Amino acid sequence: MNAAARSITRRGPGLRVRLTLLATALVAAVSGLLLWLGWMLVGNVVAAVPRLPDGTVVRVRGVDVPAELLGEALRDSARHQVLLIGGFAFVAVVLAAALLAWMVTGRVLRPLHEVTEAARRLSAESLDERIALSGPRDEVARLADTFDAMLDRLQAAFDSQRRFVANASHELRTPLSVIRTELDVTLSDPRADEAELRRMADVVREATARAERLVEALLLLARTEGVELAVREPVDLTEVVGRAMRAIAPEARLRGLRVKCCEEPAFAVGDPALLERVAGNLLENAVRHNVDGGWVEIATGSGPQWTTLRVASSGPRIPPDQVEALFEPFRRAGIQRTARSGAGLGLSIVRAATAAHNGRVWADPVPSGGLAVTVRLPVAP
């Protein structure tokens, strides 16, 4: 069933009409009960009139009434007056209640109509609109404030998605452009020999590998953000770092980096494969964004509630106000966006994976140049 069909099947009296009918019905019920009680009370009071001697005649409204029938005549007359006057009062009270309920509910529900109209106007291009309801801080105002806060989160998510798509398109366009350019240049040269073809093949293979790494990183980031862990078990971060270090050791030796690694066991709770990816990304960043002959320090520690992993390294100086931006996709420190090493998703994946473990990650610039990243994870029981 589509949205149009659902809206048709759900049509009926609005909330204002229902509230007005409910208030009117309650007032009518109470007024009817009071009218009945008045009718009964008047009848009982009149019936309690002292009895006159038998044979006495009393004139009531020009009619002679025997004394023994006086009480009944007075009771009927009083009840008739109560019904006559009370009936007019009943109708007036019910009409006044209906009118007042209609006006009050309209005034109370007006902010809800503003929320509804704002929701109808919303689209991906108009998320900057806000209700900004003024007046008393009642339940409706809190609803409007909650709606505005939701719009803030939606706008931030849409903006982040737009930036992510634009950056991903840019990053993927670079290797594809390299591949197309190499193919066009080589195929347009009728004198291209085997050496030229091999050179072109090497360039295409390198560009293809970069595109593959980027796609894998994008898929990993998409699978990690906002998901629950399928595996939760004790993991020794020292062993995880050791396995990640073996993968990056050749590049570290090639650049002459001094690496100081942790040795004490430090157990956290989480997904072993995902935590190994966290350690791998931190070490890859520490090595690839370092300076030749620099240093890398890896430390782990355990406390009553948290286990920490800290990776610090030398490198170019990073302004403190730019550190937080490094966790955004396709942001790198000290190199241009078009650099060929890495995809700029390492720290984004680290942050998403840490959040999936209910942990926290932050970074601090090293005063002499470089970056120190700390990951805090729940400790294993």
Task: Write a structural description.
With 381 residues, this protein is α+β, with helices and mostly antiparallel strands. It has three domains: 3-121, no CATH class; 164-224, Helix Hairpins (Orthogonal Bundle), CATH 1.10.287; 233-378, Histidine kinase-like ATPase, C-terminal domain (Heat Shock Protein 90, 2-Layer Sandwich). It is 57% helix and 13% strand. The protein has eight helices and nine strands. The protein has helices spanning 3-9, 15-47, 70-121, 139-187, 194-224, 237-254, 272-288, 346-356, and strands spanning 57-60, 63-66, 233-236, 258-260, 267-270, 295-302, 306-313, 360-365, 371-378. A five-stranded mixed beta sheet has the order 4-6-7-9-8, with helices on one face. It has a two-stranded antiparallel sheet with strand order 1-2. A two-stranded antiparallel ribbon has the order 3-5. Strand 1 (57-60) and strand 2 form a beta hairpin. Helix 2 packs antiparallel against helix 3 (70-121), helix 3 runs parallel beside helix 4 and helix 5 runs parallel beside helix 8.
